[in-house]
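Side project, low priority. Logging it here so it doesn't get lost.
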Amino acid sequence: MKNIDIIKKIVENFDIDEEIFKNFEFEIIKDVIWIHSKKIRDLEVSHSNRKGLRFGNILKDKSIRISFFTGQLFGRFAKKRVVELNEEELVLFMRGLDIENRWNYNEGQVIVRFSNISLGTATITGNILKPQVPTAKRLKV
């Protein structure tokens, strides 16, 4: 998969303007997509075999699942497949608990926001929104 293919899938899934990615490059290592600034393209890093942020994964069906942190960084630019939580849902989301799908989206990944702030990502399965909050980042109550 090439840079342009990754960008097309993100534009298609979330309607993020492709211009947002003009200063970035993608690198794929074993179906994991990494993103980094073009400015560090030739930077030699002796203690690591990769540069940048884990952007997401390429799934078996060749779709892309973006990482939770990618949702935080780029989610503010999304115009499609975005859910806005209320306060009660925010607590459930941050605890990693399922939320009823009141947004009527089909199955797949969504960007999650609260008060227009991108929190990360979730997956909709059936009538349930399943937060993708990493276990270590979940609210413990």
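Brief comment: The longest helix spans residues 3-14.
Revisit when time allows.
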